[in-house]
Design goal:
By secondary structure, this protein is an alpha+beta fold. The protein has a domain of about 120 residues: Rossmann fold (3-Layer(aba) Sandwich), CATH 3.40.50.10610. It has 3 helices and 9 strands, in the order αββαββββββαβ. The strands form 2 sheets. It has a 7-stranded mixed sheet, covered by helices on one side. The chain is globular. This is DUF4136 domain-containing protein. It comes from Sphingomonas tabacisoli.
Length: about 190
């Protein structure tokens, strides 16, 4: 393989790797009174100031799926459930740092002899400087006993994604929040 095809191959591989970035880890903090050994029915309701409509429904659905996997049985309405899961969501967006990529590859050559020369070159950036929005979200959940409203477990998960990938945040945050439930109380961990 000559030098030029090798350089072009490296450039295309670097360009692809720049486009395929892994999502940032989710930061999770949990608090509990100890193991939550009693499983039962749980009603999911919005906390004060929680968003309404489809955004809340996406997060409430993700929390319900995780609680179901842990042996709880989500029910509609507060009614006679053993537990109440109070779900809150806060989101914000910021501009992603843009601009040109700091990596470039130049291809050039020159010919000539004594006191003369001809040169040429081509240069292009890798990865592109994409702008756009980054969405940051915090999902918090309190699990309360219905009978006395005492909080037996609570946690919060913070993460971010590009605006294009923000639809995956509810599942990612809920999964990270309940991973290893109930988790070590008072400790903040990073979940990939």
């Amino acid at each position: 393989m000559t030098l030029r095809p090798r350089i072009l191959l490296m450039a295309s591989l670097l360009g692809l790797s720049a486009c395929m970035t892994a999502p940032a880890p989710v930061e999770v903090t949990r608090f509990s009174l100890g193991p939550v050994t009693e499983r039962g029915t749980v009603a999911i309701e919005p906390g004060p100031g929680a968003p309404a409509g489809m955004e809340f429904d996406a997060y409430a659905g993700a929390v319900a799926r995780e609680l179901t996997a842990l042996g709880f049985a989500p029910v509609q309405g507060v009614g006679q459930s053993l537990y109440v899961a109070v779900v809150n969501v806060r989101s914000g967006a910021r501009e992603r740092a843009g601009g040109r990529s700091p990596v470039s590859i130049g291809i050039g050559g020159s010919t000539g002899g004594w006191h003369s020369g001809v040169g040429g070159g081509i240069s292009f950036g890798l990865g592109g400087g994409r702008g756009g929005l980054v969405v940051g979200t915090e999902l918090s959940t309190q699990l309360k006993r219905r009978s006395d409203q005492s909080v037996v477990w609570e946690g919060r998960a913070r993460g971010e994604a590009s605006e294009r990938d923000s639809g995956a945040l509810p599942g990612r945050l809920a999964n990270a929040l309940f991973k290893g439930f109930p988790g070590e109380s008072g400790r903040t961990i990073s979940v990939p």
